[in-house]
Amino acid sequence: MDYRRFLNRLIDRAQGRMENSEAFLVKNKELQIGVYKGEITKYSIAESGGLSLRGSYEGKMGYSYTEKIDDSSIDTLVHDAIENGRYVEGSEDEVIFSGSESYEDIDHYNEALNRVENSEKIDFLLKLEKEAYSLDDKVFAVSACDYHEFEGERYILNSLGLDLKDKFNGAFTYISVVVKDGDDTKTGLSYRVFKDFYTLDYRKMAKEAVDNAISMLGAKEVKSGNYPIVFENTSFANLLAAFSPIFSSDNVQKGLSLLKGKIGEEIAVPILNIVDDPFLKDGFASRNFDDEGTASTFNKLIDNGKLVGLLYNWKTANKEGVKSTGNASRSYKGSMGISPSNLYVVNGDTEIEDLLYLANGGLYINNLEGLHSGLNPVSGDFSLSASGFLIKDGQLHRPVNQITIAGNLYELFKDILAIGNDLKFTIPSNGYIGSPSILIKSLAVAGE
Predict the structure, then answer these.
(1) Does the pLDDT value for residue 90 go beyond 70?
(2) Residues 108, 115: Cα–Cα separation, whole Å
(3) Do 230 and 204 lie in a common domain?
(4) What share of the chain is helix, strand, coil (3-state, %, to 5)?
(5) Which residues of 334-356 are buried (b: 16+ CB within 10 A; e: fewer)?
(6) What's the pLDDT at 389?
(7) pTM to 2 decimals?
(8) Residue 194 shares a structural domain with residue 115
(9) Residue 85 belongs to what H/E stretch?
(10) In this structure, what CATH number is given to the domain that contains residue 145?
(11) Residue 368 domain-assigned?
(12) Whose CB among 34, 91, 239, 296 lies 3.0–4.6 Å from 278's, allowing a Cys bridge?
């Protein structure tokens, strides 16, 4: 189907009844493969997507959507958008954007990934699982061995002349193993996020997962108290991801973030830099434009400890008389929101060995649980179950589990002593969040 021609027909029809209108279409395809004990237990190829129309009528913005993309949907979309707009509070503040002066010419689609045969992906998983079992007699089970791949297309056309399209893809794979020594059972995980399938090494992934699990055997609590903390890169990235809504200008304007009124203030130590980079090479949220059609821009949020920016769409930007940062986001079913692209803590210059040496007598945290329930994104407070290692003489001394770490994000920003140079990103969900390992002066730990 020629989507552009169809969307132009929709806009032409809408313009007969609306002041301005915009069509937003997304098409997604997802592949999921899973193996268990040498057998394929999951194999699915799913296609999804839909079309939304938004338009202004009597000063209010209305939305409608459909998953049926053909001419029979056009009149219904126009009618429903007008009717819904009558009842949406605050929609008069929304705008339809005519387009930026220029857009970065960056291709986010790796055609080579699309050419990899699915049989190769299955073979990789089977080898990965088999390798994990072969590494140690303590490997009791491989609880998960999965491959996920996605690709999508996005179109935005409106009555002000905006006409944009992009295409993107990517994949991630992971293995989770269970090891057992007597009554002691532990799990270990390894994952890769990639756009080049042939960068994968099943031997390295299997060894990483098994080593991680075995290293936690014999874990026990430590005494309650305040400890220096080294957050492993992915652990801090997951913590940052949970708190990332604090950088949304919408949350700031609604009083749901303590960053309100703090632009230009020092909110962290001078060595902390956090950016939102939509042009990151192989970044899973890299993009040329956002979901309002605004050209993407590189945004500094925290620069040498100072809060220098927030993430905006046009609705929130106009409230403050600033420009959108290109962070508008939406699904075809929802109204306009805000989300990061590739948001991360910039690498420091400290080796992980030096972080451990500086944190002597402290804890190395490589796993956090309860991120969706054990923190308050408004106040910044958190209390999370954690596991990792006790640090002694600059080395990982013994495994630790069944502890709780508690603190406040804003205080944590000011208690950073050193930042590693091992930036790593989490499995993509809402945005793509990354961090190097980070040394914190002290956090409260509840143990025995």
Answers:
(1) no
(2) 16
(3) no
(4) 25, 40, 35
(5) ebbbbbbbbbbbbbbebebeebb
(6) 98
(7) 0.95
(8) yes
(9) helix 74-85
(10) 3.30.2290.10
(11) yes
(12) 296
